[in-house]
Recover the amino acids of this structure.
């Protein structure tokens, strides 16, 4: 065989293996195939037709635009009403709240077991309080330390989980992204299945395992399973698989070790996804209720989310204020990270 | 590479499987008693038998202490005050009794000393009282309060009595503590509440009441006279403290001061080294839940006198350590529990109290008893297997007797009590703690406790660490399963036949051929009213009859007075066989509709106060709801002879129902089922059943029933004699009592009545919850039955389906 | 000067490499079977060594996660598997499929599975489709697009309790939806929403309210990423708007759709929490879901039933996700090629 041919073949094979993009021949489009005269004719016809079309299209566009705006506004209002509501109502005084909503809480017995029962009369949903006071916030923050303690409990549960899960997931995602053998794919698939399992499925064994490990009734019983949750791995893997191999190959050629590739290339390129994930995870775990209920039997280790789901009649007053305060950390994180969030999610879903 | 992966996979699998496999083989072999386990020999000294109590109207014999090897008791009371006595003008002095009695080890009285001799020497003996007597080496120290009505002064004196010589020393007036701060603080509005001693320091308390609540000002006086003031109104302004009585020494010159606040108990740590007082912020639940058992014992300071023993308070480790458990000796735990610990140490313990004689009903027998525990060298029960018995309620006297007699007679087993599953303890702990400020609702706390303890119990049984015998586990419905408990139906059928026992009770408690929790004693629920108010032969009420009854003889006051939901649920529970058959619920029946309509139309929402106290009978009451929990209650209810006992209103007018029983159950995991069965037969035996009949519950044993009944009759006749001495028979009858002596035939009538009962009260918490959610809509008239019934049926059917 | 030398050196290196590599291949052209075999074996050894190193390295990265997942997720699953084959919690006798039999024949379980299936079956596609429509809406030139985006993402952050409160106020028997505002005009009979046949609709509304924002943002971003060039050229080629949409946009959105479907599936299970707080342990049949069944079995200490039910749920999910995965991989192959 001709060495030149074989060399070319080898080169192409290598390039194919490394997926280096080369300029490909593209077919000329319909447009480019025409010669001058036909082009002119075409354009004249087009202009004539398109004027009509454009006029019609403008009207349609305008109306559809306004309809679109209306729909979008309606949906937005629906979405934001509860938040608005909670914030505004948190400025009501206790008396007013009892007046308006007392009937709901009379039926709530303060237990997650006993869901809302019958409301004997209609609660009145007032949006704006008659008299604006910050009494609720005062009660919440200053009077008794229990609520701040619960707040702190929430934070001390969520932050380790989020940080831990990010670290472990980055490592694992890198592994899944770089090493794509068939068996590994099966493992990945099972990770996804695990992600889908609702909590009740693994409740009892988790309880027993926690007891065996001696971490029952401590925060670790919730933090450890949270750190090893597989949600972040799923997202990060998808993202990391998109990193063009060219970068990695180039780094390898420059003599970089795997660890350096990981820290200097993979992680920075995924930084958007990491931000996005942090926010998502934070919001998710900030709202968790079942795990603390079962695994933390000590009442003063319960986070705020559990408390909020068990409001009873004695505490209607602070319910709204507590909810409002409770919404603030996710809101802050969300506003700060919104840029990263949207950009991060965008790149993870698309190839 | 393949091989390595395979090995790694195998290794991981092995690691995962191993714990599962080991989990399969549960720990076999129960615990046994070792010779090192603490054991005390008990000697009992019973005193007071020689006293003729009939001469007294009221008297009590209290233990003071030991002086020169003799046991000193104080007998205080009043002689019979004759009729026609005018409390305004006549002197009570002659009728007062107050004397010291010294006993030796055999329980015979060796000396007495009349304390009234001291009182007699005062100017105004009528207004002079002996406050406290304490035993010391040199004799008995007496504290006397005297009010001189002529001068309007009151003074305190102390003296020392030498019993042997029969004299008393000089009367020393007690000076009020003079210090700089008392007057000043009192002037600010404080109330002087005296002092507590903490070692050599004194804690003076001043109580302030204010608009924002009550609080205290505390002054700590050091031995050298210096004092530090702590104004709790400033230190803990949010707490509304209504009492401070305990200051616990926790070592290192620190004391825990217990604050009793309106919303629970809190503790403050007083550091005597630095003279600072801070609110205890760490978790004190371990102490707060037991704080009602806080008491002082000579030699140990403050201890927790818990249900099963004495525990010391270990503040640094936040735990309670057992010091002296009642299971360390073979006595009736109930007796010891009722006695007061005088001194406790590792070698010796002394408890004193009054002897509990179940045969003495309404008696004023004076008797006292001293239990002396001396440490044995080795445990004579060494080698016996431990059987654990748990109760969800109190360990009653009959139960403790049974345990004591079992332990004495058994060579291979020793029974130990288990307090872990006690609902009452947990409820009072929860209500004491007032978590979230909202647990003041007792029934909610009880439900909570029942659920969590039931789960705990089930888990423990599963893992092999549960108790062998479970008493009063009726609340744990989830345990009624062959996985957890033994099916005792056949055992009961074979051993407890109808000639000796009320087998209808067993039948009512069984579910077909399954009986997991055997009733040992039971109670009956129903309405008591005069026979003239209802027609002859009526055993219960239908709704129409009840409506008539309420509007007629009761003049509109509903004796049930429970509020709609409560009434509805109660009645529904009585007729569950009409609506739930074969795991299918059908509420679309006449019975349900009539009940619902009746409840909506006739039952008031307003709740009345608790059921009347039967021991303060009100002859005016036409009808009462009664839970006959023991024979004497029945007699109280039926005192007039014409009283009838009817069932709670139901669709078919059925009779009273059997409920709330003392039950016994055997765990399916026990290693000694035979021994447990022996224990049950002990509980069913004549002796223990008689005890039940006298104290707690109606016994299922016929002869015990008869004996207890007869004793009750005797006691009532005795009491009748005593009261007719004061009141005339007419007054007696006015109070609702039957002035004629009772006959034994009453007992037989009652026995017949009991043997005809068939209804059993079934209470299912989950179904109740659903009804509580749905029915109010109907009761308030906002929904019709047509709307409510389908929803109810649907939800309850799901519930029943779930259970399989 | 030196650089030239360097170049030469490099070239030499290349040449040297080429020389080395050329040598075996020229000998391969001799088609000597022995030599061929030796060469293949050499290549394999090279690959294997590299493969082993790679495997060890990457598994090392995976280890922390693997350990945790094994301990906290796989191990419980195996324990559940084991319990589902046992007679009872105290009796470890192996009873084969008896528990599964009991569970499958349990009416409550059947109801629960049917409800969960229908709910997810309706909710997930709705969530995906509606979100897609919303995304297209927002993408077609409406002003303040990012403002709408933020607002619509808000529901994700509201704590469960507030949501429950407001839903209750609205939909209870005496709630706003029964007595106030518009309804007064039509005066229909009062409906106890959560206990009627419309219960699932209410919960569906809750689910959509919560999750539309998130899905929509995903779709928006994906839409933004489609090359405008392709769209324009298609437009030039005479494709209508609809055709444009289906052929091109869907094509590029396919991976996102897969992703959003899985996320919505997860979230449709999470709705249990709100349902539980609204209606308690045993809701009206429509709302009775698999998790209610499992929760109650847990409370009643019937672990074997719980385990059998959980394993069945697991198997069904494996099937569903497997199908989705397979479909996605098919799409992947096309797009990548």
């Amino acid at each position: 065989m001709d060495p030149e041919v074989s060399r070319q073949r080898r080169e192409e094979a290598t390039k194919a293996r490394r997926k280096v993009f080369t300029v490909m021949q593209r077919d000329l489009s319909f447009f480019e195939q025409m010669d001058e005269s036909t082009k002119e004719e075409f354009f004249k016809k087009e202009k004539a037709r398109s004027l009509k079309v454009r006029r019609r299209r403008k009207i349609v566009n305008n109306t559809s635009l306004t309809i679109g705006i209306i729909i979008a506004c309606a949906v937005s209002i629906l979405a934001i009403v509860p938040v608005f509501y909670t914030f505004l109502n948190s400025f009501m005084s206790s008396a007013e709240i009892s007046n308006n909503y007392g009937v709901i809480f009379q039926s709530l017995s303060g237990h997650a077991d006993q869901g809302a029962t019958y409301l004997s009369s209609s609660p009145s949903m007032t949006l704006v309080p008659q008299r604006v006071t910050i009494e609720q916030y005062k009660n919440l923050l200053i009077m008794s330390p229990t609520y701040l303690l619960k707040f702190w409990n929430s934070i001390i549960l969520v932050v380790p989980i989020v940080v831990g899960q990010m670290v472990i997931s980055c490592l694992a995602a890198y592994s899944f992204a770089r090493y794509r053998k068939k068996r590994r794919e099966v493992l990945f698939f099972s990770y996804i299945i695990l992600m889908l399992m609702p909590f009740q499925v693994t409740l009892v064994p988790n309880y027993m395992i926690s007891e065996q490990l001696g971490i029952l009734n401590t925060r670790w019983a919730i933090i450890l399973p949270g750190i090893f949750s597989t949600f972040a791995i799923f997202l990060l893997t998808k993202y990391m698989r998109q990193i063009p191999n060219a970068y990695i190959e180039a780094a390898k050629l420059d003599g970089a070790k795997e660890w350096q590739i990981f820290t200097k290339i993979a992680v920075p390129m995924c930084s958007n996804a990491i931000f996005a994930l942090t926010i998502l995870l934070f919001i998710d775990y900030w709202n968790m209720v079942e795990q603390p209920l079962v695994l933390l039997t000590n009442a003063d280790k319960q986070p705020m989310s559990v408390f909020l789901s068990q409001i009873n009649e004695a505490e209607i007053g602070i319910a709204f204020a507590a909810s409002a305060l409770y919404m603030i950390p996710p809101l802050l994180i969300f506003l700060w990270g919104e840029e990263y969030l949207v950009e991060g999610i965008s790149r993870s879903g698309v190839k | 590479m393949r091989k390595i992966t395979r090995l790694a996979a195998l290794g991981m699998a092995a690691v995962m499987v191993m714990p599962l496999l080991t989990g399969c083989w549960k720990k076999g072999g129960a615990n046994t008693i070792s010779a090192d386990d603490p054991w005390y020999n008990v000697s009992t000294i019973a005193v007071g038998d020689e006293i003729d109590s009939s001469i007294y109207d009221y008297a009590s014999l209290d233990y003071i202490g030991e002086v020169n090897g003799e046991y000193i008791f104080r007998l205080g009371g009043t002689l019979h005050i004759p009729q026609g006595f005018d409390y305004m003008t006549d002197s009570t002095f002659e009728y007062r009794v107050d004397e010291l009695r010294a006993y030796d080890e055999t329980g015979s009285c060796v000396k007495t000393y009349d304390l009234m001799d001291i009182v007699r020497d005062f100017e105004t003996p009528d207004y002079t009282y002996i406050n406290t007597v304490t035993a010391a080496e040199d004799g008995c120290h007496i504290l006397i309060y005297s009010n001189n009505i002529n001068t309007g002064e009151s003074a305190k004196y102390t003296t020392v009595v030498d019993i042997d010589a029969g004299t008393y020393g000089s009367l020393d007036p007690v000076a009020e503590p003079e210090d700089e701060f008392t007057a000043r603080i009192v002037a600010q509005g404080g109330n002087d509440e005296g002092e507590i001693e903490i070692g050599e320091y004194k804690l003076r308390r001043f109580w302030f009441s204010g608009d924002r609540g009550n609080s205290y000002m505390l002054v700590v006086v050091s031995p050298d006279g210096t004092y530090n003031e702590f104004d709790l109104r400033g230190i803990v302004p949010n707490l509304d403290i209504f009492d401070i009585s305990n200051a616990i020494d926790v070592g290192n010159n620190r004391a825990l001061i217990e604050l009793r606040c309106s919303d629970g108990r809190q503790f403050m740590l007083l550091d005597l080294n630095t003279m600072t007082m801070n609110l205890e912020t760490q978790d004190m639940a371990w102490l707060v839940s037991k704080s009602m058992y806080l008491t002082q014992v000579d030699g140990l300071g403050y201890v927790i006198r818990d249900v099963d023993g004495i525990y010391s308070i270990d503040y640094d480790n936040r735990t309670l350590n057992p010091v002296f458990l009642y299971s360390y000796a073979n006595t009736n735990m109930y007796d010891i529990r009722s006695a007061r610990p005088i001194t406790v140490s590792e070698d010796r313990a002394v408890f004193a109290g009054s002897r509990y004689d179940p045969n003495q009903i309404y008696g004023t027998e004076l008797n006292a008893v001293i239990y002396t525990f001396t440490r044995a060298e080795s445990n004579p029960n060494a080698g016996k297997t431990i059987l654990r018995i748990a109760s969800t309620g109190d360990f009653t006297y009959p139960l403790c007797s049974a345990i004591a007699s079992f332990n004495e007679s058994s060579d291979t087993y020793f029974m130990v009590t288990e307090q872990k599953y006690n609902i009452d303890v947990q409820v009072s702990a929860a209500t004491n703690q007032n978590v979230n400020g909202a647990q003041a609702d007792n029934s909610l706390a009880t439900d909570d406790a029942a659920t969590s303890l039931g789960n705990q119990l089930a888990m423990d049984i599963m893992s092999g660490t549960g108790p062998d015998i479970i008493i009063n586990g009726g609340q744990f419905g989830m345990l009624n399963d062959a996985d957890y408990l033994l099916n005792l139906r056949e055992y009961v059928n074979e051993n407890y036949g109808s000639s000796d026992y009320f087998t209808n009770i067993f039948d009512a408690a069984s579910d077909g051929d399954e009986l997991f929790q055997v009733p040992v004693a039971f109670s009956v629920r129903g309405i008591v009213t005069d026979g003239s108010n209802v027609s002859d032969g009526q055993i219960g009420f239908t709704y129409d009859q009840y409506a008539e009854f309420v509007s007629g003889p009761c003049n509109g006051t509903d004796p049930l007075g429970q509020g709609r939901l409560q009434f509805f649920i109660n009645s529904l529970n009585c007729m569950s066989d009409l609506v739930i058959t074969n795991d299918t619920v059908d509420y679309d029946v006449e019975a349900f509709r009539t009940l619902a309509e009746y409840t909506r139309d006739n039952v008031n929402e307003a709740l009345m106060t608790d059921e009347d106290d039967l021991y303060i009978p009100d002859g005016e009451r036409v009808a009462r709801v009664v839970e006959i929990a023991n024979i004497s209650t029945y007699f109280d209810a039926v005192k007039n002879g014409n009283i009838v006992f009817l069932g709670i209103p139901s669709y078919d007018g059925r009779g009273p129902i059997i409920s709330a029983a003392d039950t016994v159950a055997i765990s399916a995991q026990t290693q000694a089922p035979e021994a447990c069965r022996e224990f049950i037969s002990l509980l069913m035996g004549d002796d223990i059943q008689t005890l039940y009949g006298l104290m707690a519950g109606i016994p299922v044993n016929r002869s015990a029933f008869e004996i207890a009944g007869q004793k009750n009759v005797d006691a009532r006749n005795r009491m009748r004699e005593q009261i007719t001495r004061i009141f005339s028979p007419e007054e007696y009858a006015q109070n609702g009592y039957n002035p004629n002596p009772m006959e034994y035939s009453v007992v037989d009538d009652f026995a017949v009545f009991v043997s005809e009962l068939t209804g059993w009260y079934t209470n299912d918490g989950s179904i109740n919850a659903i009804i509580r959610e749905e029915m109010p809509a109907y009761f308030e008239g906002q929904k019709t039955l047509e709307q409510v019934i389908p929803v109810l049926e649907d939800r309850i059917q799901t519930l029943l389906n779930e259970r399989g | 000067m030196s650089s030239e030398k360097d170049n030469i050196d490099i070239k030499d290196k290349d040449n040297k490499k080429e020389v080395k590599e050329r040598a075996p291949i020229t000998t391969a052209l001799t088609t000597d079977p022995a030599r061929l075999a030796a060469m293949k074996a050499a290549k394999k050894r090279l690959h294997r060594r590299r493969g082993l190193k790679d495997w060890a390295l990457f598994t090392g990265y995976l280890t922390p996660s693997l350990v945790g997942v094994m301990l906290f997720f796989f191990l419980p699953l195996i324990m559940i598997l084991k319990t589902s084959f046992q007679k009872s919690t105290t009796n470890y006798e192996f009873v084969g499929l008896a528990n599964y039999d009991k569970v499958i024949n349990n009416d409550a379980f059947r109801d629960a599975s049917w409800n969960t299936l229908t709910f997810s079956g309706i909710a997930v596609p709705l969530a995906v489709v509606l979100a897609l429509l919303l995304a297209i809406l927002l993408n077609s030139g409406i002003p303040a697009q990012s403002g709408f985006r933020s607002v619509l993402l808000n529901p994700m952050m509201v704590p469960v309790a507030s949501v429950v409160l407001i839903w209750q106020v609205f939909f209870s028997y005496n709630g706003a939806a029964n007595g106030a505002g518009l309804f007064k005009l039509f005066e229909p009979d009062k409906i106890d929403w959560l206990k009627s046949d419309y219960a699932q609709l209410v919960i569906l509304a809750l689910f959509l309210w919560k999750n539309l924002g998130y899905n929509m943002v995903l779709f928006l971003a994906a839409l933004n990423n489609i090359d405008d060039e392709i769209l324009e050229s298609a437009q030039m080629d005479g494709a209508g708007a609809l055709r444009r949409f289906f052929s091109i946009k869907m094509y590029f959105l396919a991976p996102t759709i897969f992703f959003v479907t899985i996320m919505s599936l997860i979230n449709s299970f999470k709705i249990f929490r709100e349902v539980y707080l609204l209606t308690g342990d045993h809701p009206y049949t429509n709302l009775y879901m698999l998790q209610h069944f499992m929760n109650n079995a847990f409370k009643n200490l019937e672990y074997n039933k719980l385990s059998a039910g959980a394993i069945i749920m697991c198997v069904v999910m494996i099937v569903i996700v497997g199908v989705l995965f397979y479909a996605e991989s098919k799409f992947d192959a096309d797009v990548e090629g």
In short: The longest helix of chain C spans residues 33-84. Chain C touches chain B through 38 residues (CB under 8 Å). The two ends of chain C are 46 Å apart (CA to CA). DSSP finds 14 helices and no strands in chain C.
